[in-house]
Amino acid sequence: MNRISRLTVAAGVVFLSRNIQAQNVNYGVQVGSNFAVQSDIGGIYDNDEIKPGLNIGVFGSYSLTDKFSLQTEFSYDQKGSGNEDFSNHYNYFSIPVLAKYNLHGAESNSWTLDCYAGPYAAFLLNAESVFENNEYDNVDLSYNTNNAEFGIQYGFMVKYPIKDNSILFNLKFGMGLTPYDENDSDSKNKYVGIGLGYEF
User: Which residue range forms the structural domain that includes residue 185?
Assistant: First the structure.
């Protein structure tokens, strides 16, 4: 993890620890799967080289009103692309900053539905090409991969209360706006993520 990533993690930990007792601050953990592709912006839906991966992290949200809140996350995201012969693994430490709006159940104790959107910054941890038939050795891709990626994330979150805590179901979409490859300015990382979480 590079120096920028370490400083960002430290800042996030301080932020969460200082605000964790506030009544309008919630925090939690979540884990799920990414289904990623790598193509140009116009090729979102016509790319068949889908690579499944993991996303796992922690989050903190700050309620501004009954309807609006801000949320930041610190997560490990696996992206890339793949087919039956090989897969390209690009692993990142990601930090989205999201504006959330409540569509249902803001003033009740029932389930709630939020939509959200916002920018993210992702910092490269490692990148390699893996051959599925083991015919060739793995190829390190880090040398020609950009260390940072910036994009947008949006999606929906369902929250179901259990006593003082909540179970979350999350459906998110991510689109890189900057290229992951130093030699290819057209291709971007894109993914659909699903996940489960627990909010304290």
Answer: 3-199
